Amino acid sequence: MDNNQLKEQTSPAPVIERIRHDTRRRTLMVESVIDITPGMRRIELTGGDLADFTSLAPDDHIKIFVPATDGGEERRDYTPRRYDNAERRLTIDFALHEAGPVTQWAIDARPGDRLEIGGPRGSAVVSKTVKRWLLIGDETALPAIGRRIEESSAGTVITTIAAVTGPLEEQVFTTSVELHIHWAHRPLSQATDAAALLKLLSTVDIQPETFIWVAAEASVTRDLRAYLLERGCPLGWIKASGYWVFGKADTTEKFG
Ligand SMILES: Cc1cc2nc3c(=O)[nH]c(=O)nc-3n(C[C@H](O)[C@H](O)[C@H](O)COP(=O)(O)OP(=O)(O)OC[C@H]3O[C@@H](n4cnc5c(N)ncnc54)[C@H](O)[C@@H]3O)c2cc1C
Predict the structure, then answer these.
(1) Are 207 and 132 in contact (CB under 8 A)?
(2) Rounded to two decimals, what is the model's pTM?
(3) Is 132 strand, coil or helix?
(4) Does the Cβ of 250 fall within 6 Å of ligand 1?
(5) Which atom of ligand 1 is nearest to the CA of 103?
(6) Per the database record, which ranges form the FAD-binding FR-type domain (predicted)?
(7) First and final CA of the chain: distance in angstroms?
(8) Using omega within 30 degrees of 0 as the cis cutoff, is the peptide bond preceding 101 cis?
């Protein structure tokens, strides 16, 4: 699909329903810790508090609370990768990097440890009429990308472009959707450089009525979003977030 065809796209933007949830703190216990890849630690948590846990969109986020060195509390955003009310289980995938307090907590976590979480405060649910997705991101986006891939129904077409450090970090997803997955390899030291993702993105055909979701380091998200707009993708079909900001703790950015 060339730029002009995309620019001529007249379909209205899909409805995004914003649903608020009652939120409260939940105290959970670590049930298991496994590294699904060398750089991605999966922690399963359990607790009676999960009986009424709700997360309606794959890119929802919860707050994770851990003690701060000054006696206060640190809080960071993480994606509920999977949850099961009946089993009282919540799964979170932690991208391991030079550790801030929550990554350090995940590195040290052992079965039986406690963790406090809050939220999600709300879910932004994109209309089920959307049947084509382009999901772009780095390691921090993979939990939401994986959840979208696994929760979408047959008949959905999902193209994913994900930046990871190498072949060992490529994840496998079980899904009934038509999945086209492209991995961009770059060292973590280049996590603020959009080049590897842009190179792959320039080779991908973007059909009209494709919902494009982007999450990565904020400067990378900004560059990807600018490229997509330049290519003619309509603003109402793009959701782009900076999931972290290089050199700044506890910082995220939202782009229109
Ligand atoms: C909506 C949302 C959902 C998210 N979901 C997930 C998720 O499911 N899994 C996940 O791993 N992350 C996720 N993130 C990103 C995560 O919140 C940040 O990476 C967070 O900064 C990690 O906290 P920290 O305490 O380890 O580091 P911080 O104390 O916040 O930061 C310490 C230093 O590490 C740097 N840093 C932060 N993250 C990274 C990184 N990924 N790679 C390299 N350097 C980094 C910061 O720039 C800072 O210099 C999500 C973010 C958002 C906004």
Answers:
(1) yes
(2) 0.97
(3) strand
(4) yes
(5) 26
(6) 23-127
(7) 24
(8) no
Helix (H, G, I), strand (E, B) or coil at 212: strand
Which tokens is 24 given? 């409260």
Q: Are 238 and 219 in contact (CB under 8 A)?
A: no
The answer to whether 3 and 208 are in contact (CB under 8 A) is: no
**Which H/E stretch holds residue 200?**
helix 195-201
d(C-alpha 127, C-alpha 19), whole Å: 13
Instruction: For the beta carbon of residue 152, count every other beta carbon within 10 angstroms.
Output: 21
- One digit per residue, the tens of pLDDT, for the chain of length 256 reads 555 566 666 689 999 999 999 989 999 999 999 999 999 999 999 999 999 999 999 999 999 999 999 999 999 999 999 999 999 999 999 999 987 999 999 999 999 999 999 999 999 999 999 999 999 999 999 999 999 999 999 999 999 999 999 999 999 999 999 999 999 999 999 999 999 999 999 999 999 999 999 999 999 999 999 999 999 999 999 999 999 999 999 999 988 6
**248: Cβ below 6 Å to ligand 1?**
yes
Q: How many CA atoms lie within 13 A of 123 on its CB side?
A: 15
Backbone conformation region of residue 47, classed left if phi is above 0, alpha if psi is from -120 to 50, else beta? left
Report all structural domains of the chain as residue ranges with CATH numbers, in order of start.
3-14+127-254 (3.40.50.80), 22-120 (2.40.30.10)
Residue whose CA lies nearest to ligand 1 atom number 3: 78
3-state DSSP assignment of residue 57: coil
Q: How far is the CA of 1 from the centre of ligand 1 (A)?
A: 35
User: How many angstroms separate the CA atoms of 178 and 159, rounded?
Assistant: 8
Q: Which helix (H) or strand (E) holds 148?
A: helix 142-151
